[in-house]
């Protein structure tokens, strides 16, 4: 054979990774195969002759072995500074391992640490100002108390959950619906690098080369729920994919919270319906911390001395102290600055590292 097993553990890891990448072979199928054959290496190298295995699978295995390249996977892991974690590893997340069908393999960049103090914040990609503010504020409060925030890295609520966590000096995990070489959405590439640099993680159960297809996202949502002790749906319409995450959480016996929204807004119809169906209404991050007995010990981060600010920048910074997030339109109305002065003042604050901007919302980065 062209592929040999030099060290049993390495060979098992490689073979499990190869089988997990095989089209049509999900976690449940792999568990059934292992019950018959024992190991991934046995299945990979001897499965085609094992009559205990379904004939359809054996034919597919022969074909897949001609397509899959161990070397290409190793090259991609090196290129993207990624790691493969399998369900045989002690460092596999405990909360995820306890789910009905955990993914056999996780590819990740960053530092995936064992912790059960994890909360998922999810919601609509097309969120309004209310939802974006709520996500950012909730994430920041949780991060300051040492909670790891899990989300999907998508536009809207997910992005603000990650940004809020970074603003609170915490760790956040991104679970994507594509291979690690397919950054999605592409405009969040810089955000993902920041997350990794801050000690967080970008992870996926999908192998390199997998595009962000719609059919991938239910599986990604299951992993988000599985990694989390609780799921908070911040803002969601009736058909939002974040409601799928909530359903998965309930199936796994995890707690589901929802942020109440306007009864007149279709963007909040899904979250309000969740509350009507029994989800716990959540008004603040502090409430969630109290629910689990997590002490609200805000991390003692050294306060940065404010650099000298222009009059316009100082006015904006002072305005943001209470809300921590404002829209461009609100800044125009409340500062009475000319468009040119407002633009230069915002640029000044961004360059000074005092604010973040996303979807025309401006957020403080420090207290």
From TrEMBL:
Domain DprA winged helix: 305-356
GO BP terms in the entry: DNA-mediated transformation
Pfam families listed in its UniProt record: DNA_processg_A, WHD_DprA
InterPro entries: DprA, DprA_WH, DrpA_SLOG, WH-like_DNA-bd_sf
Source domain of life: Bacteria
Residue intervals of the Smf/DprA SLOG domain: 84-292
Family the UniProt entry places it in: Belongs to the DprA/Smf family.
Protein name stated in the entry: DNA protecting protein DprA
Record organism: Megasphaera micronuciformis F0359
């Amino acid at each position: 054979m062209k592929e040999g097993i030099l060290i049993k553990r390495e060979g098992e890891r490689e073979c499990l990774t190869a089988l997990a990448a095989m089209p049509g072979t999900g976690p449940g199928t792999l568990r059934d195969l292992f019950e018959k054959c024992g190991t991934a290496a046995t299945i990979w190298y001897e499965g085609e002759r094992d009559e205990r295995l379904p004939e359809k699978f054996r034919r597919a295995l022969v074909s897949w072995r001609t397509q899959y390249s161990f070397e290409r996977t190793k090259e991609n892991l090196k290129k993207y500074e990624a790691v493969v974690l399998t369900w045989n590893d002690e460092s596999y997340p405990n909360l995820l391992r306890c789910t009905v069908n955990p993914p056999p393999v996780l590819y990740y960049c960053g530092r995936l640490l064992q912790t059960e103090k994890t909360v998922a914040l999810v919601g609509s990609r097309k969120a309004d100002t209310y939802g974006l503010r709520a996500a950012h504020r909730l994430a920041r409060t949780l991060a300051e108390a040492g909670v790891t925030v899990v989300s999907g890295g998508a536009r809207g609520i997910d992005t603000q959950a990650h940004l809020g966590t970074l603003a609170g000096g915490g760790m956040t995990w991104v679970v994507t619906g594509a291979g690690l070489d397919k950054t999605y959405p592409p405009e969040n590439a810089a955000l993902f690098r920041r997350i990794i640099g801050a000690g967080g993680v970008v992870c996926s159960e999908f192998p390199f080369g997998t595009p962000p297809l719609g059919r991938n996202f239910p599986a990604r949502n299951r992993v988000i729920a599985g990694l989390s002790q609780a799921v908070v749906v911040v803002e969601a319409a009736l058909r939002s994919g974040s409601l799928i995450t909530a359903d998965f959480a309930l199936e796994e016996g995890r707690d589901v919270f929802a942020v109440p929204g306007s009864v007149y807004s279709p963007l909040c119809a899904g979250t309000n319906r969740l509350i009507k169906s029994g989800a716990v209404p959540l008004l603040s991050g502090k409430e969630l911390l109290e629910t689990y007995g997590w002490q609200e010990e805000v991390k003692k981060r050294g306060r940065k001395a404010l650099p000298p600010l222009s009059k316009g920048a100082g006015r904006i910074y002072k305005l943001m102290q209470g809300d921590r997030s404002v829209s461009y339109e609100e800044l125009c109305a409340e500062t009475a600055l000319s468009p040119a002065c407002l633009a230069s003042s915002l640029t000044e604050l961004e360059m000074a590292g005092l604010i973040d901007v996303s979807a025309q919302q401006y957020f403080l980065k420090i207290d």
